[in-house]
Amino acid sequence: MRSEQSVLLTDLYQLTMLQAYYLQGLNDVAVFEMFVRRLPAARSFLMAAGLEQVLDYLESLRFTSEELQWLRETGRFRPEFVDYLAELRFTGDVAAMREGTVFFADEPLIRVVAPLPEAQLVESRIINLLQFQTMIASKAARCRLAAPSKSLVDFGMRRAHGAEAAMLAARATYLAGFNGTATVLAGMRFGIPIFGTMAHSYVLAHDDEAEAFERFAECNPREVVMLLDTYDVESAAAKVANMAPRLQSRGISIHAVRLDSGDLAQLARRVRRILDERGLTSVRILASGNLDEYGLRDLLASGAPLDGFGVGTRLDVCDDAPYLECAYKLQEYAGAARRKRSEGKANWPGRKQVSRHFSAGIMCRDEITLDSEPCNGEPLLQPVMRHGRRLAPSPSLPEIQQRAIAGLAQLPAELRQLEGAAYEVQVSPAIRKLASQLDRTMP
Amino acid sequence: MRSEQSVLLTDLYQLTMLQAYYLQGLNDVAVFEMFVRRLPAARSFLMAAGLEQVLDYLESLRFTSEELQWLRETGRFRPEFVDYLAELRFTGDVAAMREGTVFFADEPLIRVVAPLPEAQLVESRIINLLQFQTMIASKAARCRLAAPSKSLVDFGMRRAHGAEAAMLAARATYLAGFNGTATVLAGMRFGIPIFGTMAHSYVLAHDDEAEAFERFAECNPREVVMLLDTYDVESAAAKVANMAPRLQSRGISIHAVRLDSGDLAQLARRVRRILDERGLTSVRILASGNLDEYGLRDLLASGAPLDGFGVGTRLDVCDDAPYLECAYKLQEYAGAARRKRSEGKANWPGRKQVSRHFSAGIMCRDEITLDSEPCNGEPLLQPVMRHGRRLAPSPSLPEIQQRAIAGLAQLPAELRQLEGAAYEVQVSPAIRKLASQLDRTMP
Fold first, then answer.
1. pLDDT at position B68
2. Which one of B3, B232, B286, B347 would you mutate to disrupt binding with A, by most A Cβ within 10 Å of its Cβ?
3. pLDDT digits (tens, 9 = 90+) for A253-293
4. Chain A / chain B CB contacts < 8 angstroms
5. How far apart are alpha carbons B375 and A178 in whole angstroms?
6. pLDDT band at A1, cuts 50/70/90?
7. CATH classification of the domain holding A67
8. Which of A213, B50, B261, B429 is at a distance of 20 to 30 A from A73, taking alpha carbons?
9. E strand residue ranges, A124-251
10. Do B305 and B206 fall into the same domain?
11. From CA B401, how far away is CA B47, in angstroms rounded?
12. Is there a single domain that holds both residue B131 and residue B141?
């Protein structure tokens, strides 16, 4: 089971179209671009993420002998076409926005330039990879904006949609500014800092809550976090306060306590008081349970003495916008621009670039231009792959995170609020002219 | 990269708790059950799915030497504990609802009985697997109820949340009654029927739409489906009608046309007229684009002459309810029942069973009982694993689908509507009594 790497993780029509391209000899250079048609409600911006996995996929793209055999046996494909697939590699060029870049509707976040069959085949998986991480990074960035100085940890593995979603959600939230994740495998694979506490079942497995806390601290002295809400939060906080000196005398300090249900703001105040009265001012209070960027904002606005948050389900499934209206569209074939005109789904034709303009260090305007036009601002699409190979080693996740945080700081103030605000994205006159020309000449 | 099989696809706290269990010698038998606290808005029922992947996971659970080495290097775990993990296997018993079973809030859909560390460790991945497929199967069942006699195909791979979500969405929609999927790898791995059409890019890569259609039919004569909405739907339909006799004379029949944008009902009527006028009454009309169970219901209620549907994004991400409020909770440890009392998150204690009662072949009432009570109705939790091994080979997906469809036919009429309706689920007096006893005796 290596679904993540299989070329057959694609839509059947890609293969039937490829068979037609092959038989017709349609092998000229195609230009596809992926963009988001419109931002989800309440979003002011999106944050690009997922490019690393796309480049991995393109570099390693090949059909295994088992897959080729299965394709033969379906009876849908001609033998010579399956032989052709056996040799197929991705040999094209890719330009893309760097991960962590803020972007807007209609702006291409990746451009694939390759022989038509190669550029076509990869559509389904490129969308699958870029949509998900971009969606999650964008929501994580909103959480970071809502709680700029707090510890934020991804808790969402269990309700993420499967294994890869859990892994890539950990990655996307971290690159957008989270401190880490609870998902162990994301620590191993991606080097993301991992964090953990205890579960209610741990407390329930003991006859006595205080005993559960003390044993846990002894067994995991490195970072002790006690979960307070299995029975009664305040009495649990008192138990923690009672045992703190005893643990301290054995060299174990209590790092934090966690609240996971109830009125988090009110409980945090009560727990803070109980801890402070016993001199435990350095014990942090963490909260989790049903949180998202709005929950973070409201808790902090209420002045609740909370130091960190586990943000889980709503983030990892992006519950208020669980998909992006994105598309990967043919913009040019054999040197000629192309444009789909379907009702409500038309797109701008040609090979494009996005340039960003700043005023006093703050983003003020983007312009979508043809790639052949001069670019006055900062060009957002950068070449990352040539002839099927990466042009440079990928940046590390901490480097991407730094860039993402710097990018958020360049957002206009109104875009840093959680309510959706508009940003000016101009479409160059040359693109508009090209679109009109195509509308006149195409069937 | 085998995220799907890694034991480290779990939350860090599972491992820190395991270390504590290990050091404390807490190794008695624990009983965990997973249930859904409440149904999402507008849902009248859920459909169990994902058990097959859970059993695969439990049977193959082990830490690899690379994973153990990495755990050692984190500095979080004692060497003797890591040695213990090296030997850890899942040796417990599992009872579960069979896939395709309809169920309701508070009803356990799986019960895990195993030494505490084993039953604890698997929590995160069991939720991750069962939540997703159950959520998708439940929505797919609603689509099936909305369009009982139509062809329904999963089109959602590209916007599913990663690779495993795409694969398991294809599986869950099929077992809930879909005809198949567009995801090729799901055809190879799960034997699910695959379906495909053509994309707009195929038409755009040609200078002439009619030429694109005709070449496609020649290259893929087995199942010809023409996409009509790249430019103008009615003129595309006329082109299809024009070339049909020519193709027919060469032994190629046009199976269907597809609409992917605009007013689908109105366009379908116009296309039907164009095709029928030319005697092409057997050419089916398929629709796709932003569909869900409500879209299907409304299109069919309008009398639109549509024969089949590609249902994609909204289904595969379950956009109106992208997570379930589910929990996997300790119900019993070392022979004693346990109960969490957190605000708003209390659950029923003890080792439970669900019995279903019928009246004239229609479900009329469920009862949640203690497993030790006599069960009068049909018991929904069946033993599926003993000592870490499956008790019987798994049913095939077509068998599960048959059971699922039979189950939908047993739903009361009001539960087969898309608006949420209530169903009677009783909690036995013995469970209520046990809960009260625990509330009096626990801290």
1. 98
2. B3
3. 999 999 999 999 999 999 999 999 999 999 999 999 999 99
4. 341
5. 49
6. very low
7. 3.20.140.10
8. B50
9. 151-154, 180-181, 224-227
10. yes
11. 11
12. no
